[in-house]
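User: Predict the complex.
Assistant: Input components as received:
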Amino acid sequence: MKRESAFAYFFVLPALALFIVFRLIPLGAGSIFSFSDWNGIEPPRWNGLDNYIELLGDPVFQATMLNTLKVLITLPVWVGLPLLLAIFIYLEVPGARVYRAAYFFPIVLSSIIIGTMFSIILRYDGTLNQFTGLVGIPGIDWLGDGRYALLAVILVAIWAHFGMSVLIFLSGLTTIPPEIIEAARIDGANLGQIIGRVIIPMLRPTIELVVVMTTITILTSMFGLIYVMTGGGPGTATYMPEFVIWLMQGQFSRLGYASAMSVALFVVVAVVGIIQIRLMRSQWSR
Amino acid sequence: MRSLLSATERRLMWVASAIMMVLALTTIYPILFTFSTSLKSTKDFIRHGFSIPTAPTFEKYLSAWSTIKIGEYFLNSAIVTVIGVGLVLAVSSLAGFALAQLQFRFRQAIFYLLLTGLIIPVQVIMVPLFQVVVELHLLNSRIGLGVVYGAFFSPFGIYLMTSYYSTLPAELIEAAKVDGASLWQIYRKIMLPLGRPALITLGILTTLSCWNDVLISLLVLQHDRTLMVGIAALRGEFGADIPLIASCVVIGAAPVIAVYLIFQRKILGGIIVGSVKG
């Protein structure tokens, strides 16, 4: 028994080592560096809460937060669209199988592939404007005009992620017994009532889960699209938290300041993440 | 289900179907468009932007190979993906076996500690992570990038393998021990073969994660490029040559699309396990 437990540690050791070296130590070190002024070459100079104070007054950070907020406002579309699609697939709309296969397709594509494809389509002399030009609609500089760039990134991000949500909703829908819907039917419920009063309430835990997962996606998985589609621009129009952290570290060598931003982002993500784990657990134990 | 609907509702379903078809076309169109563009010459693209290629040519694929070093990027991506996936499979099966089937102190604590990896995204630790990579001399090393992938994608694997191995009966191991097998033999001869279905799912999902990554790759490889970083750089370097960019996108997406078409069930199933339970 004693030898067995020694051996067991040997089995978990690689996992623990990778976790500690590449996640735990960086997380700890990051929070410490966030209290310093550091360019990565000279030793860090401790400056207390300066970074955090600067953060609050920094117009770039404020623009980033505002952008994040704008994206979060579109959350109902990120969740509602796949929800409806999944429900209609579940209700066996004509062509459901084909549609489902099509919707799942973007799941496996990288944000770089997706972003590059859409850059070709959305650029000012790109395919979309050529197309709308044919019917006389003036072109829009989707990626180069500050009024539209964030919207374009949001639409592409929804394109990239909605299949994943459809998939999760469909797996949630399989837990609804068909008898319940048949019973509602016999009681005289129409299609709208079945969707609104039976299916959506029963799907609530899954909806909560998708809301949380989508929030985390918005906070941490927009980098690739922004990097390849707009480079954060024009100006700060498409700055999102992770992109700015990357910028502060790599381009401006402001490591202490970037760390402070990271800590702020981590706190938000961790809170959302803990909610997610709770939801998963309730889902799991059902 | 459909038989239960009234005539009006059935018509409504057809309307919904039409809308959903438009969405499905929107999903497929960019991929087909990119593929068709990649087969055009620059002139053909400028003249006929949306039509199918008038004279399909592989010329852009050849110049992707010769002028952009796309082959080298491809090889880099393949190397880091193989290392990352190998590491994730090894680490997750070892830890999953121990956490699910062996008794030792702090077992629960270690399990939950490793799971917190799932809520520490790379984005929030990239500054100090970079320092760690530099300290360990992993910067600009493809092996280094593979190792970092192994570290980042293993918490999900550990979760998956632990839950998979906990479904195996404890008697299995007891019986093997009675027969005098060592823990290492049990791992090699029983756990690895039995874990195959889960390991295949994990391997495929991790392959996608490594192949598609760009942020970690930008951080660790600052001289070499993986395929995704190389493709991302094209817009600035070859921005005017759309068919060339399109051909590189096709090269980058083709392996992933092939994997998806072959392993669709495993991929979708694995994602569901990952989202609902871990």
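Chain A touches chain B through 97 residues (CB under 8 Å).
Let me know if you want any component modeled separately.
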